[in-house]
Amino acid sequence: MEVIVLPDAGRIGEVAADAIGVLLDRKPDAVLGLATGSSPLAIYDELAARHRAGEMSFALARGFTLDEYVGLPADHPERYRNVIDAVVVAKVDFAPGAVRSPDGLADDIPAACAAYEDAIAEAGGVDLQILGIGTDGHIAFNEPGSSLASRTRIKTLTRQTRLDNARFFGDDVDAVPTHCLTQGLATIMAARHVVLVANGRSKAEAVHQLVEGPVSAMWPATILQHHPHVTVLLDDAAARRLQLVDYYRETYRSKPAWQGI
Ligand code: GLP
């Protein structure tokens, strides 16, 4: 796991966009894993800017989102499908239908989850997965207690996650759905490169557990310690509880430029 502490969200966006650019140069039809939440927004803004500048094309790329609320109407602005369309898909040149999401309105939820796993596999798996992290250490919507071997399935959101996300629902926690569909931890672990981004002091404990804590279903993101290629991009506030932060900073400073992330 590589831990990189950067001065601000803008720089985090640039470093992640560099990695996506290298991937798309090598593999124009790469499969990207797209996360919702505020943390990846700087990455999406940078991708959009590079696309506008003619430096990056997603015309052959494919995408899969991580998760979706169950039961939000198709036109609800906080439906993750609509959020991801607004923050990134509509700002670049993905082909129609190239980005897929779990169907939170499916009548047959288990079948929809199985179909989503099949679609990811048929696309050849995810090349680069963008991830945020919840304050309770969840990734996608894999809440504490999630099976470390889980696949796409329905989950119940914790009170903490619904409180965290109430800001998107007029600060009304009761308006936040109780259930979601989410890629499982094993689904995420199958991505070839995971780029996790965290900003702000509210994420500091989850980041400390992710990087330096014991692997445990109580902090689901810790499963990433078993992944061979994870890059963690942090601002100073999110890094403030890391015991080895000086080592991570020194390692990145002295990293050969040819290595990339
Ligand atoms: C939600 C999403 C996660 C995201 C998390 C943190 O729970 N399902 O994918 O990582 O929020 O969001 P934010 O980046 O806004 O703090």
UniProtKB/TrEMBL annotation:
Q: Which PROSITE patterns match?
A: GLC_GALNAC_ISOMERASE
SUPFAM superfamilies given in the database record: NagB/RpiA/CoA transferase-like
Identify the metabolic or biological route this protein is part of: Amino-sugar metabolism; N-acetylneuraminate degradation; D-fructose 6-phosphate from N-acetylneuraminate: step 5/5
Could you tell me the keywords of this UniProt record? Allosteric enzyme, Carbohydrate metabolism, Hydrolase
Output the Gene Ontology terms for molecular function: glucosamine-6-phosphate deaminase activity; identical protein binding
Q: Which residues form a coiled coil?
A: none
According to its UniProt entry, the protein's GO biological process terms are: carbohydrate metabolic process; glucosamine catabolic process; N-acetylglucosamine catabolic process; N-acetylneuraminate catabolic process
Which parts of the sequence belong to the Glucosamine/galactosamine-6-phosphate isomerase domain? Answer: 16-226
Q: How is the activity of this protein regulated?
A: Allosterically activated by N-acetylglucosamine 6-phosphate (GlcNAc6P).
Principal EC category: hydrolase
Recorded catalytic reaction(s): these are: alpha-D-glucosamine 6-phosphate + H2O = beta-D-fructose 6-phosphate + NH4(+)
Identify one Gene Ontology CC term for this UniProt entry: cytoplasm
As recorded in UniProt, its EC number(s) are 3.5.99.6
Which residue positions are annotated as catalytic? 67, 136, 138, 143
Annotated site (Part of the allosteric site): 146, 153, 155-156
Family annotation (NCBIfam families): nagB, PRK00443.1-4
What this protein is reported to do is described as: Catalyzes the reversible isomerization-deamination of glucosamine 6-phosphate (GlcN6P) to form fructose 6-phosphate (Fru6P) and ammonium ion.
Say which family it is in.
Belongs to the glucosamine/galactosamine-6-phosphate isomerase family. NagB subfamily.
Q: What protein name is recorded for this chain?
A: Glucosamine-6-phosphate deaminase
Q: Which gene encodes it?
A: nagB_2
